[in-house]
Amino acid sequence: MSNHALANAAEVLKTARCAMAFTGAGISVESGIPPFRGPGGVWSKYDPDKFEKGYFKRHPEEVWPLLKEIFFDMLGRARPNPAHLALAELEAAGKLAGIVTQNIDSLHQAAGSRVVHEYHGSTRRMRCLSCLTFFDSAAISLKTLPPPCPACGGLLKPDFVFFGEGIPSDVHAAATDLAKQADVCLVIGTGGEVIPAGRIPHVVKQHGGTIIEINLRDTAYTYNTTDYFLEGKAGTRTPELVRAVLG
Ligand code: APR
User: Fold this and answer.
1) Which residues contact 241 (CB under 8 A, 6 or more apart)?
2) pLDDT, tens only, 24-68
3) What is the distance between the alpha carbons of residues 101 and 6, in angstroms, rounded to a whole number?
4) Where residue 104 sits, what CATH number does that domain have?
5) What is the CATH number of the domain that holds 55?
6) Is the pTM of this model over 0.70?
7) Ligand 1 centroid vs 190 CA: distance in angstroms?
8) 4 labelled catalytic
9) How far is the CA of 215 from the centre of ligand 1 (A)?
């Protein structure tokens, strides 16, 4: 990656009025969580159609073991990597107003970030589809699957967005408001292939903002939305950028 792009991106970030970050699975790959698409991606091993809300409700005994395998077993072991930590440092220095993440791994919060809009929800909670009660996932045993609702014995669903499900309206509003205010958006570890999340960088751009993209490879953003492309691993490029901004 050219130092020229890094220096220019750092200058833009330094002078930003309101900078934000939009992150995807790529920022957590160096924490040991596989991406969904690309080499070794989750959707190259599991059929995404099974994670559609209607299918889940019809076949919970088939889907719940997959949910445990993909989203719960490994999550307990994952720790924030230098990319998550760099964004938390940028926020603590008053240079990042917030993060909109597509990830459900809570690693931004674990790194110390305070303003995190979880556009696709998180694994932290589950909700009963019968009595609609929320439960802390840590309080639900996954020894028997599907885990019964502790209150009514109904079907529990992890509180993250399945295909075919809407985005929680409060999160959508908060994320869109931030994108409208932002004059700089760091787009890290996402190809923006899923809508409406993937529209966030376009909202920033439409309101005159500047896009700094960090990714291993070019994406659908790179040639028509991105202003500065920092090629490489999030865990390397993000701290580099933050060092260049904060010194
Ligand atoms: N550093 C930076 N970028 C990386 C790294 C890395 N170490 N590893 C992978 N990437 C990039 C890939 O090049 C790709 O652009 O991260 C992106 C991962 O893409 P996806 O797996 O599609 O992840 P994401 O864009 O977050 O998916 C969006 O799709 O299945 C749904 O709900 C799920 O939130 C997810 C949504």
Assistant:
1) 6, 9, 10, 13, 86, 186, 212, 214, 230
2) 999 999 999 999 999 889 999 999 999 999 999 999 999 999 999
3) 23
4) 3.40.50.1220
5) 3.30.1600.10
6) yes
7) 4
8) no
9) 9
